[in-house]
Amino acid sequence: MQELICQFIRPDLLILVPVLFLIGNWLKKSTIRDYKIPFILGTIAIILSNIYILLTINIFSIREILLGLFAGFCQGILIAGASVFLKQLKIQSNKNYK
Hints:
Elements: H1 2-8, H2 16-29, H3 37-56, H4 62-94
Helix pairs in contact: 2-3, 2-4, 3-4
Protein backbone atom coordinates (compact mmCIF):
# COMPACT_ATOMS: atom_id res chain seq x y z
CA MET A 1 0.00 0.00 0.00
CA GLN A 2 2.85 2.37 0.84
CA GLU A 3 4.33 1.94 -2.64
CA LEU A 4 0.97 2.72 -4.22
CA ILE A 5 0.58 5.89 -2.17
CA CYS A 6 4.13 7.03 -2.94
CA GLN A 7 3.60 6.32 -6.62
CA PHE A 8 0.75 8.82 -6.94
CA ILE A 9 1.38 11.39 -4.20
CA ARG A 10 4.35 13.71 -4.65
CA PRO A 11 6.95 12.86 -1.99
CA ASP A 12 7.29 16.49 -0.93
CA LEU A 13 3.55 16.63 -0.18
CA LEU A 14 3.45 13.44 1.91
CA ILE A 15 4.04 15.54 5.03
CA LEU A 16 0.45 16.73 4.68
CA VAL A 17 -0.91 13.23 5.44
CA PRO A 18 0.04 13.23 9.16
CA VAL A 19 -0.76 16.95 9.39
CA LEU A 20 -4.30 16.29 8.13
CA PHE A 21 -4.54 13.26 10.41
CA LEU A 22 -3.83 15.49 13.40
CA ILE A 23 -6.24 18.18 12.19
CA GLY A 24 -8.87 15.46 11.74
CA ASN A 25 -8.34 14.26 15.31
CA TRP A 26 -8.70 17.83 16.55
CA LEU A 27 -11.88 18.32 14.51
CA LYS A 28 -13.28 15.03 15.84
CA LYS A 29 -12.97 16.38 19.40
CA SER A 30 -14.65 19.65 18.45
CA THR A 31 -18.35 20.34 18.01
CA ILE A 32 -18.14 19.89 14.23
CA ARG A 33 -20.33 17.07 12.97
CA ASP A 34 -18.48 13.96 11.81
CA TYR A 35 -19.83 13.97 8.27
CA LYS A 36 -18.29 17.42 7.68
CA ILE A 37 -14.76 16.43 8.69
CA PRO A 38 -13.74 14.70 5.41
CA PHE A 39 -14.95 17.73 3.43
CA ILE A 40 -12.98 20.10 5.65
CA LEU A 41 -9.86 17.93 5.39
CA GLY A 42 -10.28 17.69 1.63
CA THR A 43 -10.59 21.44 1.30
CA ILE A 44 -7.51 22.05 3.44
CA ALA A 45 -5.52 19.46 1.49
CA ILE A 46 -6.51 20.94 -1.87
CA ILE A 47 -5.66 24.49 -0.78
CA LEU A 48 -2.28 23.54 0.71
CA SER A 49 -1.38 21.34 -2.27
CA ASN A 50 -2.26 24.11 -4.72
CA ILE A 51 -0.24 26.66 -2.78
CA TYR A 52 2.79 24.38 -2.72
CA ILE A 53 2.60 23.35 -6.36
CA LEU A 54 1.99 26.87 -7.65
CA LEU A 55 4.95 28.15 -5.64
CA THR A 56 7.31 25.46 -6.92
CA ILE A 57 6.57 25.45 -10.65
CA ASN A 58 7.76 27.89 -13.27
CA ILE A 59 4.76 29.81 -14.50
CA PHE A 60 5.09 31.21 -18.00
CA SER A 61 1.55 30.87 -19.28
CA ILE A 62 -2.07 30.37 -18.26
CA ARG A 63 -1.73 26.74 -19.35
CA GLU A 64 0.94 26.12 -16.70
CA ILE A 65 -1.22 27.79 -14.06
CA LEU A 66 -4.16 25.56 -14.98
CA LEU A 67 -1.96 22.45 -15.01
CA GLY A 68 -0.64 23.42 -11.58
CA LEU A 69 -4.17 23.92 -10.25
CA PHE A 70 -5.25 20.58 -11.65
CA ALA A 71 -2.22 18.83 -10.14
CA GLY A 72 -2.85 20.55 -6.81
CA PHE A 73 -6.49 19.49 -6.83
CA CYS A 74 -5.62 15.87 -7.60
CA GLN A 75 -2.82 15.79 -5.03
CA GLY A 76 -5.13 17.31 -2.41
CA ILE A 77 -7.79 14.66 -2.98
CA LEU A 78 -5.19 11.87 -2.76
CA ILE A 79 -3.64 13.34 0.39
CA ALA A 80 -7.01 13.76 2.10
CA GLY A 81 -7.91 10.20 1.14
CA ALA A 82 -4.66 8.89 2.56
CA SER A 83 -5.26 10.81 5.79
CA VAL A 84 -8.79 9.43 6.20
CA PHE A 85 -7.48 5.96 5.33
CA LEU A 86 -4.84 6.30 8.06
CA LYS A 87 -7.55 7.28 10.53
CA GLN A 88 -9.67 4.27 9.55
CA LEU A 89 -6.69 1.95 10.00
CA LYS A 90 -6.27 3.30 13.53
CA ILE A 91 -9.97 2.84 14.29
CA GLN A 92 -10.09 -0.69 12.90
CA SER A 93 -6.92 -1.76 14.72
CA ASN A 94 -8.45 -0.68 18.04
CA LYS A 95 -11.58 -2.81 17.59
CA ASN A 96 -11.82 -6.11 19.39
CA TYR A 97 -12.71 -8.91 17.03
CA LYS A 98 -14.09 -12.18 18.32
